[in-house]
């Protein structure tokens, strides 16, 4: 069956079973391999994308549930040359280790920091709880995210 998706601002289609996990369509059919497929059980957050702006684990979502909605992957939120605030902060703080968790982390935290750019440390920590970093660099990631508000303060 042909599934039609609106992904990163473009219409794309894929001939797949409607119950195929969205992450598999994104990676294997549309070749947007920035989104990672790790636990495939809704546990690690590596597969996080935005569906109509809401962070969503794409390993748990059948592709048919994404039809007619705006899907954004890591390729759609910024990259080299046009990084968003979260990506900038993570790069400036040099926090990436193996990088496997980072696409999902960036998707979750981009949505969160847009809503709460001045969130305190404890709240950021709680917001990150759905994204597991096996390299355990959490404290530096939080420091990086806190710097977004600090930077806005000094430029206000
Ligand atoms: S791969 Fe989807 S939550 Fe881990
Ligand atoms: S940087 Fe390696 S899993 Fe997070």
Automatic annotation (TrEMBL):
Keyword Zinc found: no
GO-annotated molecular function: 2 iron, 2 sulfur cluster binding; metal ion binding; oxidoreductase activity
UniProt-listed Pfam families: Fer2, Fer2_2
InterPro entries: 2Fe-2S-bd, 2Fe-2S-bd_dom_sf, 2Fe-2S_ferredoxin-like_sf, 2Fe-2S_ferredoxin-type, 2Fe2S_fd_BS, Beta-grasp_dom_sf, Diverse_Oxidoreductases
Domain 2Fe-2S ferredoxin-type: 1-77
Assigned keywords, A-Z: 2Fe-2S, Iron, Iron-sulfur, Metal-binding, Oxidoreductase
UniProt superkingdom: Bacteria
Database matches in PANTHER family: OXIDOREDUCTASE WITH IRON-SULFUR SUBUNIT
Protein's name according to its UniProt entry: (2Fe-2S)-binding protein
Organism: Mesorhizobium denitrificans
